Structures are given as structure tokens and as C-alpha cells.
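Our consortium's second objective concerns turning raw sequence data into structural hypotheses that experimental partners can test. To show how far this objective has progressed, the report includes one record in full. It was chosen at random from the queue rather than selected for favorable results. The single chain below, 181 residues long, was entered without modification.
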Amino acid sequence: MRNIKINSKKKIILIIVFIIILFILFKILQSKDFDFQEDLFFFKLFGVENIQENSKKENEYEIEVIKGENNYKEIDLLQTIDIKTLTNEKIAPGTKGCFYVFLTSTSNIDYEIEIVDKNKSPRNFKFEINEKTGKIKRNEVKKLEINWEWPYEINEDENKQDTKDGKSIEEYDFEICTIGK
């Protein structure tokens, strides 16, 4: 009789654990950022270091804004690429990425931020900065998101230009310039 009670308790515990697992899986599938959640679940489950958390640190840059000065920070596009869009481990039409700039200042200051090409960029290559100008308070840290994209197959003429530009993309360098006002 006691054996029957233990077995039924084990069954109830197994059912509860199964329901909890199903609930967690359902929540993960509902998430908008499914790939990140899937990776996070896998890496935590098997004790592997989370690659995405480390890669986020590689695409973060800190720049101090100083009144009357221009500060430059060189950015490596390969460190900022969305790996889902990577083509043969190269930046090419159809790739995109994102990086973050953290602005700091020792005084209240107005700033402007620009992308400065060090050499010729692909014609269809685009940057988008969420806040090109603004104010930063003393000892504040302001996070700016900068997205880039090289659209794929805009039209026939642009595709020819992309092919031409694709041959020189490895030489493309740029910097972020912050201007303290």
C-alpha cells in the first residue's frame, strides 16, 4: 500500500515538472527575440558561456564629449554585424548591423555625432543614428544606438554598383565623431 502512495506522488511530481517545462517553452516561443531566448536557454542548460552577451560588449564604444573638441572613435564593422545577415564572412549587400555609443561628459554640454568616412563607402551603404544631436548632463552616460545596412537588390543599376563596391568593402573604414558644443 505504501508503495502505491509513493508511485502516485512521483507521478504527480513528474506531471507538475512536465507542465512547468511546457509553460517555459511556450513563453520562449512567444518571445519576439526567439533566437536569443533559444541560445540563452541552450547555453544556460548546458553550462556554456553565452556568446551573444559577450558579442554585445564588442559592439559598445565609449566616447567622452568635451566642449570645443571633436573626438573620434574607429569602429570595426565586422564586430557589429548581425550574424544572421553575414554572407561568406564578408560584409556585402544584404548585411546589416548595430552598435552602441556611450557618451559621457564632465560638464553639461550639447553634442553632435557624425559618421566620418576615412575612405570611400559603398554608395548604398546607410547609417541611422537614433539621436544625432542632444544634450548630455555632467557625469551622465547617454546611450546611442547606431544601425547600419547595405540594402540588397534595389534595382539593376544599383546592383551593378553594389558589385563594384563589394570588391572594395574590405578597405572601407569610418569613425564616429562627437562634437562638443
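The partners drew two points from this record. Residues 90 and 175 are 19 Å apart (CA to CA). The mean pLDDT is 76. Both points have been shared with the crystallography group to help prioritize constructs.
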